[in-house]
Amino acid sequence: MKYSKINGTGHAVPRQIYTNDDLAKIVDTNDEWIVSRTGIKQRHISTDETTTDLAYNAALKAIEASSVTLNDIEMVIVATVTPDHAFPGVSNLLQKRLGLDEIPTFDINAACSGFIYALNIADKMILSSAYNHILIIGAETLTRLTDWSDRNTCVLFGDGAGAMVISKSETPGIKDIIVGSRSDDEGHLICDSPALKNPYENKISQQDHIHMNGREVFKFATRVMPSTIVNLLERNNMHKDDIDYVVAHQANKRIIEKASKDVGIPMDKMYVNIQNYGNTSAASVPIAIDEAIRKGKLKPGDTFVTVAFGGGFTYGGALIKL
Ligand SMILES: CC(C)(COP(=O)(O)OP(=O)(O)OC[C@H]1O[C@@H](n2cnc3c(N)ncnc32)[C@H](O)[C@@H]1OP(=O)(O)O)[C@@H](O)C(=O)NCCC(=O)NCCS
Predict the structure, then answer these.
(1) Whole-prediction pTM
(2) CB 45 within 8 A of CB 159
(3) Helix, strand, coil % (nearest 5) of the chain?
């Protein structure tokens, strides 16, 4: 029997921090409303660092924290809804910057659940024996898609990236496969995504911005998050007390509190960092896992559940032993 494992994590966020008070200068909102309804106190917003820049910095940290070097990486998967370009992908641009060979590199889009989808692909690739070490990243500059005149949505989101090296911890395998990539960082074949923007200028993208029915999303999230945690435990004949931590997608502290109550896992076992980052979409889960590891909240040998939901009404979860 063989498995894949987390073999190093890292994260990166833009330099600029916008507090709730900063946003109150842009829209009719206030710190009290934002904190009480969401738990968010500040978020990092990029006006000059691209999704690829953030992914690159997170990737270097994950490699540094792992037992492998860049030469060992055989595949890169980036989960993002805010790639620098519609194509080439962030993964493809990273390939050149990281100096990787002609390995397969591709982006996936499963909104805020994207990182869990990437984890699933990496896991299955490794279980197939075709790959030993895969770099997966959740990276977003979601604030490019923000309408800074819409207080219902603009207070919720932030930018960032989280990365993981997923490695085999045993064997079996795939019969044959050929895939490759060649990094077109000069833009020979390219289609643009919306440009980075300054919240104070709010140049609404020609390609549109985020629209959200908050209550419907809230209902979906508070249903699917507890049920995914419970399903993971039941499928593995585990009890909630066997779990050291739950690292959930950071969309709203109240959603995490509801999951904690419904599953019966106390809040001190639910990792919460939304106060510092807001909702960073596909980056939220790997940023939180990396931070929990670096703070010693998650330790080698610990068992944790990670769970996410997002646009498309995607969802996902994983049961992981560190
Ligand atoms: C968005 C969300 C925080 C709103 O919280 P809520 O308790 O449902 O708030 P409501 O929608 O009931 O809005 C209450 C009032 O606050 C107002 N309001 C909305 N945003 C505000 C803001 N930033 N500041 C001040 N007031 C605000 C609304 O206009 C509304 O006013 P009204 O009653 O006069 O119309 C919540 O619905 C949510 O988190 N949903 C899930 C969103 C999510 O997770 N998205 C990402 C998925 S990956």
Answers:
(1) 0.94
(2) yes
(3) 40, 20, 40
Ligand 1 centroid – CA 20 distance (Å): 15
- Decide: 307 and 225 in contact? Cβ < 8 Å: yes
Catalytically active residues are 112, 249, 279
What distance in Å separates the CA atoms of residue 157 and residue 159, rounded to the nearest whole number? 7
Give yes or no for a contact between 84 and 55, defined as CB atoms under 8 angstroms apart: no
Highest mean pLDDT among 2-6, 9-13, 121-125, 173-177 belongs to: 9-13
Helix (H) or strand (E) holding 164: strand 160-168
Residues whose CB falls within 8 Å of the CB of residue 63, separated by 6 or more in sequence, listed in order: 8, 10, 69, 70, 73, 135, 165
The residue with greater pLDDT, 314 or 254, is: 254
CATH topology identical between 4-173 and 214-321: yes
Q: What ligand 1 atom has the least distance to the C-alpha of 38?
A: 3
| 24: CB partners within 8 A, 6+ apart | 30, 31
CATH 3.40.47.10 fits 4-173, yes or no: yes
Output phi, psi for 8, to 5 deg: 135, 135
Nearest partner of 286 among 155, 119, 168, 68, judged by Cα: 119
User: So where are the chain's domains?
Assistant: 4-173, 214-321
Instruction: Grade residue 173 by pLDDT with cuts at 50, 70 and 90.
Output: very low
Do residues 53 and 84 make contact, with C-beta atoms less than 8 angstroms apart? no
Q: Which of 44-48, 52-56, 199-203 bottoms out in mean pLDDT, i.e. has the lowest?
A: 199-203
Give residue for tokens 């690292």: 247
The domain defined by 214-321 folds into Peroxisomal Thiolase; Chain A, domain 1 (3.40.47)
Measured in angstroms, how far is the CA atom of residue 305 from the centroid of ligand 1? 28
| Residue with CA closest to ligand 1 atom 31 | 152
| Neighbouring-strand partners of residue 167 | 5, 133
